[in-house]
Amino acid sequence: MEREHLIKPLLNQRYATVQYGKGVFLYDEHGKAYLDASSGAVTASIGHGVQEIIDAMIEQANKVSFVYRSQFTNEPAERLAKKLSDLAAGNDYWTFFVNSGSEATETAMKIAIQHWQEKGRHGKIKVLSRRMSYHGITLGALSMSGHVGRRRRFIPLLEDFPVVAPPYCYRCPFHMTYPECGIACADDLETAVKRIGAEHIAGFIAEPIVGAAGGAVVPPEGYYQKIKEICERNEILFIADEVMTGIARTGAMFGMEHWGVEPDLIALGKGMSAGYTPIAAAMVKDHVMEPILQGSKLVMAGHTFSANPQSAAVSLAVLDYIEKHDLAKAAEDKGAYLLSRLKELSDRCGMIGDVRGKGLLLAVEFVSDRAGKLPFPSANGVTSRIINKAFDKGLLVYPASGGVDGEGDAVILAPPLVITLDEIDLLVNTFEQTVHEVMLEVM
Ligand code: PLP
């Protein structure tokens, strides 16, 4: 075998080589079709090969692809920042553009800290988060992430920010039931604030719906209203990590709209460009920017490719496409259909413990004993088996961990929002065959 040069996720595995994509399908070098039931990493929300986006890309490339943001501003970036503010609750956000979700959450973290510094509150430097969470792979973002597997190697370098219990009703960390619990998981933020001291806390970050670290975990009604109230009372900025949930994925433009909560800062990525180019963003409310505008007048963040005109033009075209085709509504309607089909499937598959999610961000959690909600031993590698077997059958699904501390198995199903009902039926049938075959192996 020829020696390789590209570092891939698993270095002992042979990867198929993608040739092209169209709609919800990707095709490899042998012409095999794969139904992209995860939109890659919950990213390709408008499907592959959309001509309008390719046209917008070429149009901008014919003008200018790169400028350095300290030398020029550019029209696509200015328009995109305004567009995002128009789409978000309150319509009063500034935006700082970056290139990945990790940079977006880390920039939000830094701006939250800078906000308090500009007000002379230099002790407020921690950004609390939940144990079941993933906010990114760079060290600041990883400090805020509870994802056990991704943290492990770097623990000595990380801050211990994920201290709050997750809103995970399927296996409640407090062994309680909603609504009698009184949303104890939200009260856990208050407990952490009392222990650490609000004078040390700049912000609290949460994914509206937990993604990779839990598998589409939707909090109970009233949770975010309570979280926001605790944050406000303690002068803590609330950061919504909408990297996975943002831009129509859950049936609303922003996930937090489902709970009517306006975050002080928002991190965006993935669906912002639907994968056509790398771009992400930290959105910042007026009142958070105000002390910076009055003070140093300089946001201490940024990358060479920040506010890149090429990426901004692509993102604008993606947002237009999403609005033109009302893909937030499509996510709601098709998500309801896929969820109902998966619930039927769980009645026929003993190893499906839970089916959950919102819009087209759905997940299936696997258990060895449904009544006892017992996870499989990790040595069984159930998530990998499902992913690999589905792949062989031409179906792409995304790994997640179930369980409060990542001890469980789950996969995310989050196809492009343009998927048809027939394609959803194909997805479910292939997924059912996959689950049955894995069940025979592990049960
Ligand atoms: N935040 C959330 C909620 C995510 O799901 C992810 C990626 O999966 C990130 C942040 C990090 O984004 P990226 O992989 O683009 O750095």
TrEMBL record:
Transferase keyword on record: no
Entry-linked Pfam families: Aminotran_3
Entry-linked InterPro entries: Aminotrans_3 (IPR005814), Aminotrans_3_PPA_site (IPR049704), PyrdxlP-dep_Trfase (IPR015424), PyrdxlP-dep_Trfase_major (IPR015421), PyrdxlP-dep_Trfase_small (IPR015422)
The keyword Acetylation belongs to this UniProt entry's keyword annotation: no
Keyword terms of this UniProt record: Pyridoxal phosphate
Family in the record: Belongs to the class-III pyridoxal-phosphate-dependent aminotransferase family.
Entry-linked PANTHER family: AMINOTRANSFERASE, AMINOTRANSFERASE CLASS-III
Protein name: Aspartate aminotransferase family protein
Source organism (scientific name): Cohnella kolymensis
